[in-house]
Amino acid sequence: NAGVMQNPRHLVRRRGQEARLRCSPMKGHSHVYWYRQLPEEGLKFMVYLQKENIIDESGMPKERFSAEFPKEGPSILRIQQVVRGDSAAYFCASSSGLAGANTGELFFGEGSRLTVL
Amino acid sequence: GDSVTQMEGPVTLSEEACLTINCTYTATGYPSLFWYVQYPGEGLQLLLKATKADDKGSNKGFEATYRKETTSFHLEKGSVQVSDSAVYFCALSDRQGAQKLVFGQGTRLTINP
């Protein structure tokens, strides 16, 4: 009964490199959400995806950040040319569909902690 | 925009002590309110929720009441246990965009035996 799986748990990158964070939703879930938690702050919404579709990316920075959720495989959050300000914990959550979304019952992974040197 | 403010931590209590973690919010409209908990080494889990004014959410001995007049959703437990040690997040969502949960900064709770 695997929950939401995120990897890597910890990632260290140098400025200018690329970071790829992966998220496998709970079995049977087709909706994925990415949140970012900067140090000493709450989680902030980034993007909401369904299989092969970006539904809402209003929280994504305009440059360097992208997300996908292909038909097969995990969701990927990609950060190009990382900068020190990208250092944060990135949380993925999943739900089964609109019913789950509307009740706030999102199931979260343990997070991926990105450190940019 | 919408925001959530939580009591700053960390909070350290002895077992069987009474707990209150304050949470206030600012929102347009009538949001739903949530408490999520993150136990060490795990992801966030929904602890309880309330979807309208005066609703009380409860789970595992924790309670929180949706107070529209004070825009608050304080988390309470009468007698905490060591196993309650975790980080607690207050959050809100508007009815239309529930996936865009707005979180407070989290409160780390440590319970000593």
**Which strand-content bin applies to the residues of chain B?**
over 45%
Q: Tell me about the largest β-sheet of chain A.
A: 7 strands, mixed
pLDDT < 50 stretches of chain B: none
Radius of gyration of chain B: 13 Å
Structural class of chain A: mainly beta
Extended strand count of chain A: 11
Q: Which pair has the most extensive contact? A: A-B, 31 and 28 residues
Number of strands of chain B: 12
Pairing-aware structural class of the strands and helices of chain B?
Answer: mainly beta
Largest sheet of chain B: 6 strands, mixed
Task: Give the overall shape of chain A.
Answer: globular
- Give the helix proportion of chain B (percent range): under 10%
Note down, in words, how this protein is organized.
The complex is a heterodimer of chains A (117) and B (113). Chain A is mainly beta and 117 residues long. Chain A is 4% helix and 48% strand. In chain A, strand 7 (65-68) and strand 8 (75-79) form a beta hairpin. Chain A starts with a strand and ends with a strand. Chain B is an all-beta fold and 113 residues long. In chain B, the strands form three sheets. In chain B, strands 2, 5, 6, 10, 11 and 12 form a six-stranded mixed sheet that branches. In chain B, a hairpin with an 8-residue loop joins strand 10 (86-93) and strand 11 (102-103). The A-B interface holds A 3-4, 6, 31, 33, 35, 40-45, 48, 55-56, 58-59, 91, 93, 95, 101-111 and B 4, 6, 32, 34, 36, 38, 41-46, 49, 51, 89, 91, 93, 95, 97-106.
